[in-house]
Amino acid sequence: MTVTLITGANKGIGFETARQLRELGHVVYVGARDVERGEKAAATLGARFVQLDVTDDASVSAALAAIDAAEGRLDLLVHNAGVLADGAVDGPAALRAFDTNAVGVVRVTEAALPLLRRAENPAVVTVSSSMGSFWAVTNPERQEYALPLKLYAASKAAATMLTVQYAKSEPGIRFHAVEPGATATDMTAAYGIGRAPQESARVVVRVATLGADGTLVDENGVLPF
User: Fold this and answer.
1) Longest C-alpha distance within the chain, in Å?
2) Which of 31, 80, 164, 199 is in the most buried spot, having the most CB atoms within 10 Å?
3) Has residue 66 got a pLDDT over 80?
C-alpha cells in the first residue's frame, strides 16, 4: 500500500485530501501541530497520527523517524500546512509566513528524502497557490490581482520555486506544486470566497496519484508561473 504523509491534515484541504487518499487505500499519516486535534482527525479518518510542526526541526525529525520505524519508506509527501498571513505586515509576520509556507517545505522534504528514495514511485506534492504566480497577480482579469496578500503571495512563490529546484536535484522523485482552487476554509473566511474543501482536495489527489507536467498546475493543467 502507498504510505502517505500530509502536513496540516487535521482540517480543511489537508483533512479532505487525507480522507480521499484513505478511500484509495493509502496508509495515511495525519501530520498536525496540535496533538488532540490531530489524533481526533486521524481517528475520524481511520488514519495514523504524527505530531508535526513544520516550523520546528525537532518535531519534523521525530515525525519522519516514527514513519521510518513503522513503514521503512514514504511513497507520497503532501505539503499542505500553511498560513494566510493576512494581518499586519512586519518583520515577525514575514518570518512566520516564510517559515511555515516555504522553510517548512525544506524542513519536511529534507527529513523525508531518505524515506522517499526507498519508495518505488515516490512523489512530493506542494499545495502552493496561484497567488504565488507572477502571471496571475499581474493579470487584471484574474481574482489574484486584487487580493492584498503580500506575505502569502511571496511565500507561495518561494514554495513553487522550491518545487522546481527539488525536481531538478532529485530526478528519481516526482515533484509537483498545485493550486487547488479558491477554497472556503477558516483561513479564507474573512474574504467570503471559495468552494468546499472536498472539491479542492480532489485536485490535490489527482496530481498526487496521476502526476502532471509543469511546475505549477491547477485543475485545468499547467498554470503560468
Assistant:
1) 50
2) 31
3) yes
User: Which of 15-24, 30-39, 193-202 has the least mean pLDDT?
Assistant: 193-202
139 — pLDDT class (breaks 50, 70, 90): very high
CB atoms within 10 A of CB 147: 18
- Would you state the pLDDT for residue 184? 52
As annotated, the active-site residues are 152
Give 95-118 pLDDT, tens digit per residue.
Answer: 999 999 999 999 999 999 999 999
Query: What contacts 140, CB < 8 A, 6 or more positions away?
Result: none
Residues β-bridged to residue 177: 126, 216
Order of strands across the sheet that contains 27-32: 48-51, 27-32, 3-7, 76-79, 123-127, 174-178, 216-218, 221-222
**Residue 6: beta bridge partners?**
30, 78
Phi, psi of 191 (to 5 degrees): -95, -10
Domain at 3-222, CATH from 3.40.50.720, 3.40.630.30, 3.40.50.1460, 3.30.2390.10: 3.40.50.720
Bridge partners, residue 78, by sequence: 6, 125
User: What beta strand segments (E) does the chain contain?
Assistant: 3-7, 27-32, 48-51, 76-79, 123-127, 174-178, 216-218, 221-222
Q: Write the DSSP assignment of 128-153 as a string of letters.
A: --GGG-HHHHT-TTSGGGG---HHHH
- DSSP reduced 3-state for 224: coil
- pTM: predicted TM-score of the whole model, two decimal places: 0.93
